[in-house]
Design brief:
alpha+beta, HU Protein, Chain A, 2 domains, three-stranded antiparallel β-sheet
Length: 94
């Protein structure tokens, strides 16, 4: 599902104009980016949690040459599924 399909599905389910849903998703994106920039954790109960984490520096290997390379420390984003998403995923047969 891409963004346009998501906007359309939410608009139909909530019985609101697609332009409103698109604006809300844009606002959500802006707030998530701002929160991650500040180092805040965002939790939408039952759905997901988004937080900034730190990955320490480490030594890796170039798979083509076998040469050791230094990988610098970096900030990254961790997204954790909430209970409703986990339940939905576990109810689908493998």
């Amino acid at each position: 599902m891409n963004k346009a399909e998501l906007v359309s599905a939410i608009a139909k389910r909530a019985d609101v104009p697609a332009s409103t849903v698109d604006s809300v998703l844009a606002g959500l994106q802006d707030e998530l980016v701002d929160a991650i920039t500040r180092g805040d954790k965002v939790a939408v109960s039952g759905l997901l949690t988004v937080e900034r984490t730190q990955r320490s520096a480490r030594t890796g290997r170039n798979p083509q040459t076998g040469e050791s390379i230094d990988i610098p420390a970096a900030n990254t984003v961790k997204v954790t599924a909430g209970s409703n998403l986990k339940k939905a995923a576990s109810s689908v047969p493998v």
